[in-house]
Design goal:
four-stranded antiparallel sheet, 3 domains, single chain, Beta-Lactamase, about 550 residues, disordered N terminus, alpha+beta, 18 helices
Length: about 550
């Protein structure tokens, strides 16, 4: 016989100790735990009571194996009680106690009843554990289903104007808690270096180059499988940096891998992980891979939609540019005019602190502001001398014509005010509605300054373009009269090098903007230029168009 225990799990040892404690509580004497025929040494058991010999204990072990317990007189006043520990073979673990009584019949009933009660409680404890495990699994499943529903709803409602990175951070943060990962990351791959970026939630642990080399080691595979590595299967460079488990799923778009979703290090129970899979709580498996695949689908779909939107916007912008250049090309003196107006308008909007989206839209509005000139006959549009009243009236119809052309394109609804009202004046002398002050939409007030500046500095058949310095002076003099004072002030505050960032393409190539706006300006030169410009508009019917 041996008094050493076999190798037991911590959970089993706790169960055995609880059983011995229950016997002590019910029978009223200490019980020792002894191993019969054990082979492994350990410190989980106690020596047998002093009144019991090894021979007696081995003999009683056989009876306890059959009945569950055995009684034997050890002297005139004490009875040895041996109880087989449930769940462990009788030849291994016994609970042994010495009861100070010779009433063996009563003791037998007490031990039998106690053993039945202990077995019943053990059964209840087992069922309670099973119930808790089921509840934990049910809770986890409900969290998983809730997360998947949230993911589906997010996919349905996700605005393509939201960046892929913003969507990734939101999805990865919720995924990290659901699968109990120390870190999660999105690796994207695109045609340009700007597309090759990484989004991490949690510590990075390993250099991005190692990750990319491992993720794209089978580059060219059209349908790569998820990668799962736990324990010894994790490559040395990762293990050396504290990585002990990895799961990675591909993001695919149009038959190619556009990125990878990676989770690193499944947390232990002590770190707060769900313990329903006690045997593999340090490992990732198919459950985590499936959840990550769902997240990868959302991110890949959103990324694809964003790419399609950008392609559509680029196509639309290309068509708009082509259309505006086709209109400008009718007059060699105004070639590039619409592009320059859009550029100046965008700079003004930026200087005024307008949001990026509004600045981008006002640039497009600048490209389209003169689209109505498509309805003006060449003999009027290209006339080298003064226009008749009837011809000038036809020129003045181009804002309304442009409005009528664009109003049927829903994605340009927000551009209509600028197209229609860019020739209005603050004092009400403009056209087509004669609006005054802030009745004129801000978009149109910005375009009016940009349009007028480019018109003043561009060559015409009947005059050379004036210098930028002179044009600045006219803008200042007519600020608050013809043009919005705040818009003029913003335009004059734009740094010269920023304004020169756009090459104004005319008949003679790029035009270099002249020096500071303070140079060569005197009251006489300003008044002369204003008189010349206004006389040109009023007397010769040659407006700034």
């Amino acid at each position: 016989m041996s008094h050493d225990s076999p190798t037991l799990t911590a959970e089993t040892i706790d169960s055995v100790r609880r059983f011995a404690g229950f016997l002590e509580e019910r029978i009223g004497v200490p019980f020792s735990l002894c191993v019969v025929n054990g082979s492994d040494s350990g410190d989980q058991t106690d020596p047998p009571p002093a009144l019991i010999t090894n021979t007696d204990l081995e003999h009683m072990a056989g009876t306890a194996e059959r009945r569950g317990f055995a009684l034997s007189s050890c002297d005139e006043r004490h009875t040895t009680t041996v109880v087989r520990v449930p769940g462990i073979p009788a030849t291994q673990m016994l609970a042994v106690g010495v009861v100070p009584t010779k009433q063996t019949s009563m003791l037998e009933r007490l031990v039998s009843t106690t053993l039945q009660l202990a077995l019943h409680q053990s059964h209840l404890h087992e069922k309670s554990n099973e119930l808790n495990s089921c509840l934990e699994q049910l809770t986890y499943d409900m969290e998983e289903q809730t997360w998947l529903r949230m993911l589906a709803e997010q996919m349905r409602l996700c605005d393509v104007r939201v960046t892929v990175k913003s969507v990734a951070v939101e999805v990865l943060t919720s995924l990290q808690g659901l699968i109990y990962a120390e870190s999660v990351a999105l690796f994207r791959s695109g045609s340009s270096p700007a597309d090759n970026h990484v989004t991490w939630v949690g510590p990075q642990l390993v250099n991005d180059q190692f990750w990319r080399r491992w993720l794209w080691e089978e580059e060219g595979t059209t349908s790569p499988l998820p990668k799962i590595a736990n324990g010894g299967r994790v490559e040395p460079p990762f293990r050396a940096s504290g990585v002990n488990s990895i799961v990675a799923v591909p993001l695919t778009s149009s038959g190619r891998v556009s990125g990878w979703l990676v989770a690193v290090n499944r947390l232990t129970q002590e770190a707060g992980a769900y313990n329903g899979f006690a045997a593999s709580e340090m490992e990732f498996g198919t459950v985590e891979a499936s959840l990550m695949a769902a997240a990868a689908t959302l991110i890949a779909t959103h990324s694809h939609n964003v790419d399609l939107l950008h392609e559509q916007e680029a196509l639309v912008l290309g068509v708009i540019r082509s259309m505006s250049r086709a209109i400008d090309a009718r007059d060699p003196y105004t070639r590039g005019h619409s592009d320059r107006v859009g550029w100046y308008a965008q700079l003004i909007a930026e200087q005024m602190g307008l949001p990026t989206e509004q600045r981008d839209r006002i640039y497009i509005c600048g490209l389209l502001h003169d689209v109505g000139k498509i309805g003006v006959p060449d003999h009027i549009l290209l006339k080298p001398d003064r226009l008749t009243d009837a011809q000038f009236d036809m020129i003045k119809q181009h804002p309304q014509t442009g409005y009528d052309i664009v109003k049927n394109l829903k994605q340009f609804d927000d551009l209509l005010p600028g197209i229609l009202h860019h020739h209005e004046a603050i004092d009400g002398s403009g056209y087509p509605r004669g609006l005054m002050g802030e009745e004129i939409p801000l978009q149109a007030r910005i375009l009016a300054v940009a349009d007028s500046f480019d018109a003043m500095t561009s060559d015409r058949p009947y005059r050379n373009g004036m210098s930028d310095v002179k044009a600045f002076g006219i803008l200042r003099e007519q600020s608050g009269i013809q043009w919005d004072a705040g818009v003029v002030r913003a335009f004059l505050q734009i740094p010269v090098e920023k304004r020169q960032g756009h090459l104004r393409m005319g008949t003679d190539g790029p035009c270099v903007v002249e020096g500071s706006i303070e140079e060569f300006i005197t009251p006489a030169t300003i008044n002369a230029d204003i008189d010349s410009l206004l006389a040109e508009v009023a007397a010769e019917h040659s407006p700034i168009i």
